[in-house]
Amino acid sequence: MRTSDGVYLAVVEFGGRGTPVLLLHGLMGRATTWWPAVGWLSAHGRVVGVDARGHGRSQAAGPWSTERMATDAAEVLEQLGGGPAIVVGHSMGGLHALALAASRPDLVQAVVVEDMAVDLTGAPDGALADARAWFGAVPQPFESLAQVRRTFGHPRPEFGDYMAECVEERADGYHLLCRVDNAVAIAAEWTRQHHWDALAAVRAPVLLLAAAEGIVPRGQSEKMIEALRGNRFGPYARLVTLPGTGHLVHASAPDAFRLAVEGFLSTTAALRNPT
Fold first, then answer.
1. According to the model, what pLDDT value does residue 155 have?
2. Fewest beta carbons less than 10 Å away: which of 101, 194, 207, 246?
């Protein structure tokens, strides 16, 4: 599809019927990283993923702001019709899901946020430069998918599997689909600007899934829940922290991830679909 500013976004249909279930991936990811979860999610509606701009098969064109990328997600839902949607976002996608729910409450009926903060402005100085340097030192092209997995899979193998989904094969080997400079530009906004105001504007039940060893600053998930309690859906805001998990919760603990999400959707079903 084409966005209102002319950028091509790749949309992936995963199956299912009825209520849209929109999947938003993390930084440097793509929609197909959600494959491990789409089988059971299709029981809850029509599951669709979108490659964020600059990722996967979508066009690499800015602006890279949270606001613009949340607007992209809104335009995908408008094209799909049949909403409001259940929106599930990992990391960057979780932030976009919250921004989408805040700016377009008419399009969102429930939100699942997997290991993402609304305030990373306290990130250590030089963290982005370190990330750029690390990725810049990664040898591209990769000779094989096995090399991709070895490069990114320590100490957590699931991250190697995730990144193996985020490359494309060319004549000379495998290349990352997301340019490192674009990813750094996206993350740079997070270190400059918080999004606490988005939480107060959300008008839908929210599940925050926190990793035991994730990226959310200590204590912030609890503060996010308190901020969400300021509207009529506040009693349905839920925080679940999964022990033993890293940033890729849905990959490191797929059964626990499913149990938490389906429990949340079951609990909020009557609220989302009043008779």
1. 85
2. 194
In the chain, the amino acid numbered 186 is I
What tokens appear for 133 in the block? 């340097």
Q: Which amino acid is at 29?
A: G
User: Does residue 145 come out as left (phi exceeding 0), alpha (psi in the -120 to 50 range) or beta?
Assistant: alpha
> Which residues have C-beta within 8 Å of that of residue 211, sequence separation ≥ 6?
115, 241, 242, 245, 246, 247, 248, 249, 252
Share of the chain above pLDDT 90, in %: 84
Q: What is the mean pLDDT of residues 52-77?
A: 97
- Please tell me the pTM assigned to this model: 0.95
Average pLDDT over residues 229-242: 90
The token pair that represents 12 in the structure block:
């992936």
pLDDT surpassing 90 at residue 136 = no
Q: How far is CA 104 from CA 35, 96, 138, in A?
A: 27, 12, 39
Q: What is the CA radius of gyration of the chain?
A: 18
Task: Evaluate the CA torsion angle 115, 120, 122, 127 in order and state its sign.
Answer: positive
Per the document, the length of the chain is: 275
pLDDT of 111 reads: 98
